[in-house]
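S.,

Sequence below, as promised.
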Amino acid sequence: MLLDTASLYFRAYFGVPESVKAPDGTPVNAVRGLLDFIARLVADHSPDALVACMDADWRPQWRVDLIPSYKAHRVADPAGAEEVPDTLSPQVPVIEAVLDAIGIARIGVPGYEADDVIGTLAAASATPVTVVTGDRDLFQLVDDARGVRVLYPRKGVGDCDVIDEEAIAVRYGVRAGQYADFAALRGDPSDGLPGVKGIGEKTAAELVTAYGDLAGVRAAAADPFSRLTPARRRNLTAAAAYLDVAPKVVRVALDVPVPEVDAAVPAAPADPAALEELAARWGLGGSLSRLLAALAAAR
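The prediction came back faster than expected:
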């Protein structure tokens, strides 16, 4: 089980009231919410291995170099920091410390997003993989033959859509292997990806279905005898510079130099003393107890 950790702690932050606080009054709603999410996931799905994948770089420069608008609207300051709610940022180091003390494997790689870590680990896995994320970008990893699926939370993680190849076909009208090309054509305002003018979700699906992939769509645009309408041909031709680089930006990296870690689900805390101190300082209470009980039962 691969966790898109930032996706989950953002969801926890907005789903758990800020009135959930540490003894000193500091909000810990994201911390406790995430611990409860992981406890529920472990209890419901009994993974053999568990990795919390992190955004060591939420907006990698190599992606920005290709498409400068990539996540530009989320930049909080000239230094490039991500715009994060004031009461969430201080909780992230606490989350990291707690996961480490529990012994849940945590991986972030400089220059890459959590999506890239997830993609690399999923591609290298010899066993079925469940990715837990609220980010549609990772639908491109779905592969029934290899047992790679996505759990996409509706509200909490106890209520998830299971995204397999059939679900992608029903939702979007494309095959899982076409999802990245479909997404590049459609664009995504939440990531600062403009897409191609005049091509929304329905048209993008029609195009990749008709021509197989983005290369086929572009070949059709260059062919004066293809069945593309003049408007679509013009828009695709005008977007040539974007389409030259969009696939590299949209597709998750599958070759990230991830460190080797012990991803086994921990039956007992890796550092009990540190965990006890963290639990007392931050008032982790029942959330931590539920997670430890779920982890012990899973082993």
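Residues 132 and 151 are 5 Å apart (CA to CA).

Coffee later?
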